[in-house]
């Protein structure tokens, strides 16, 4: 193994055959690591001439000025808008923000948390759905508990399962139920649903809220009516294409996120179908671009920037009793031209 300049933590983890989180803990001493793994990491770091990023550590020296924000994908307008709210409040308080994308990789999220602990960030904010994974939940708790005990602040957006930290929670389940009611009121009785990975709690909540409201109205939503894809525009396009290939038997398609709905609109257009004349389409979130689409998208509007602002405010506010503070934010159904009444 030959040394190379500017080796990264990822290089060390790969050379040692361990995860990023394990490499970070071994090098920074932030949590126990099995001796044989620690030895492998230290050996790899020595052979690669790895040194921590000096600039990052300089920022960490002013721990009262640094906030770490971890989201799924900052290129997604949902996360970009929420992060914008965080940055607005941070700037008002003379704070520096470090922003990281995990691309929905639980192991990468753990690694970023471990690194921010080592850099002594004053606060860590986690934006986006958690994972339906007990092992990940335990690992994240193990990372965060000593950080909080040491005076670090943690706030989350859209996570409500087991993390006992301050949280800003969009009403995902209630918002999806409200959308189902609105679509039923338009006369729709045959639905298809496009979802992201069902291991994400946000996906599970939105699908459950939508399904439960249909069930109350006596309208079935069969397993084949729910199609899973990536939580992206391309994922929505692929899921909609799958539905069309099988023969679309729905008057309305509900996508659990606007970016998937945008992909669905493109797929319908490419297959020569008109929205809403041939099929109605609805989404969830109200990211800024959807009101400018042709046709504008019906959606559940969340106060995205306020989600970020409130999370940052929670992280900045003293909480001597360390009792979990929860701030819930409701969504509002906005009917636009992508949905129409059933004749």
UniProtKB/TrEMBL annotation:
GO molecular function terms listed in the Swiss-Prot or TrEMBL record: DNA-binding transcription factor activity; transcription cis-regulatory region binding
Pfam (any one): LacI
Alphabetical keyword list: DNA-binding, Transcription, Transcription regulation
Transferase in keyword set: no
Domain of life: Bacteria
Entries under SMART domains matching the protein: HTH_LACI (SM00354)
Protein name: LacI family transcriptional regulator
UniProt organism field: Micromonospora costi
Classification of source organism: Bacteria, Bacillati, Actinomycetota, Actinomycetes, Micromonosporales
């Amino acid at each position: 193994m030959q040394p190379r300049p500017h080796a990264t933590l990822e290089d060390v983890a790969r050379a040692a055959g361990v995860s990023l989180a394990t490499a970070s803990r071994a090098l920074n001493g932030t949590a126990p690591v099995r001796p044989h793994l620690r030895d492998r990491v230290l050996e790899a770091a020595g052979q690669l001439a790895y040194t921590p990023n000096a600039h990052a550590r300089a920022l960490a020296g002013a721990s009262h000025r640094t906030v770490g924000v971890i989201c799924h994908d900052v290129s997604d307008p949902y996360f970009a808008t929420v992060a914008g709210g965080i940055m607005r409040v941070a700037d008002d308080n003379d704070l520096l923000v470090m922003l990281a994308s995990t691309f929905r990789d639980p192991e990468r999220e753990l690694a970023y948390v471990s690194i921010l602990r080592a850099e002594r960030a004053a606060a860590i904010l986690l934006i986006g759905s958690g994972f339906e994974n007990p092992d990940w939940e335990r690992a994240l708790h193990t990372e965060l508990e000593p950080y909080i005990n040491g005076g670090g602040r943690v706030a989350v957006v859209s996570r409500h399962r087991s993390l006992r930290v301050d949280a800003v929670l969009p009403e995902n389940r209630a918002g999806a139920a409200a959308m189902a009611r609105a679509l039923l009121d338009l006369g729709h009785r045959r639905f298809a649903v496009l979802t992201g990975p069902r291991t994400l709690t946000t996906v599970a909540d939105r699908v459950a809220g939508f399904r439960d409201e249909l069930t109350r109205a006596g309208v079935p939503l069969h397993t084949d009516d729910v199609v899973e894809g990536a939580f992206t525009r391309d994922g929505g396009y692929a899921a909609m294409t799958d539905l069309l290939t099988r023969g679309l038997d729905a008057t309305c398609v509900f996508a659990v996120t606007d970016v998937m709905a945008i992909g669905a609109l493109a797929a319908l257009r490419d297959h020569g179908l008109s929205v809403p004349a041939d099929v109605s389409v609805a989404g969830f979130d109200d990211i800024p671009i959807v009101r400018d689409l042709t046709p504008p998208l019906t959606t559940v509007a969340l106060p995205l920037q306020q989600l970020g602002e409130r999370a940052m405010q929670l992280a900045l506010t003293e909480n001597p009793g360390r009792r979990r503070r929860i701030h819930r934010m409701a969504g509002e159904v906005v009917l636009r031209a992508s949905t129409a009444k059933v004749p």
